[in-house]
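#lab-general

N.A. 3:47 PM
ok so I finally got the sequence cleaned up, no stray characters, all 355 residues accounted for. can someone with queue access submit it? mine expired

B.Y. 3:52 PM
send it over

N.A. 3:53 PM
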Amino acid sequence: MITNPNANHRLWVQVTPRLTPSAAPSATIVAGIITDLVASGVGAVIKTASDRLIAPDQYSTSTILAYEPAFALRSRATTPEFLLKCITLNVGPKPLRILDDKMNPIPGLEMENYEEYKESPVVAQIEFLESIDGTAITGKVAQWKYEKFLDPSSTWFRTPRRKVTIEIKVSAADGTSLLALAMQVEATESEIRTAKPNEGERLPWSTRPSKSAQAPGDPNTDIIYGPVNIEAKITEVAEPSAFAKVLGSTLSNQKATVETYIKGRVAQAFDESAAAQAQLTLISAAASTREKYETAHSEAVAAKKAFSQAHPPGENERQQLILKLQVLKQQEVLARGAFDKAGLPFYALPEVPGP
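B.Y. 4:20 PM
back already:
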């Protein structure tokens, strides 16, 4: 029995704000692994099998964090401030400790000393940086740890390399996308520990998230607002090997032939009348080949008699005898095969000697 070492692990997402939030973020909601579509019918099963061979294997897990506040409109300011300073993800039995007892952010190097970090095979921390003019925002991979693939299953007919993608999407309560980031590495199982996506470097710029306050208050006071949903998703993709592509294409091309064969075999297995009809067909074929075999034997005997009565036998009689004996030999092979398929004993006629 194969056990999943990540069975008790969850994907956690946490936020380090630029100020102390007025409300704590809600617990994460852990989504399940993507399941395979189950198809019915012989043709659908064959098509699914061929499609699976030529399509990549994909493992995915995701979490949504309902968080607030995400924005602050400072006193007498006209543009809101984006309050998300850092997003930390980890896959493990517990969320990482990102704040100390005084509610100060824990530096990345210190974070590695805690048990929660050591128990997590995957850790990613992304810091947000604003452009000088305040119109754009980017992410920087401040912490990255990917000790092993999260999908422990074997990858038959797949290349040993997998594409690992971590996506983060921040959206408003009405579903409007505010920010989307993605990081990707491609590595084998032995390389994944050291593969890192632009660690310490900036990710591509995005427009700085902005959302107006629903009910502006006193312009001389700060307004803290903006509930958002933060979705984190980890995907591992294994591409099909060259052999799998060829095999899948071949199976797809032979779908009709294989479908007819399987349907016939299934019908015989579950329908007695169908099985009896199939056996009767084999017996009829055996009887037909037996009749042709006996005819060939009679012609060979006649050719032998004509050869023996000729004094002396000519080349024509010799040639006729040789031809009839070859026809007899091939008809006997066909008859034996037909009787064998029908499960019947075969009794050969007396041998006709050659010239």
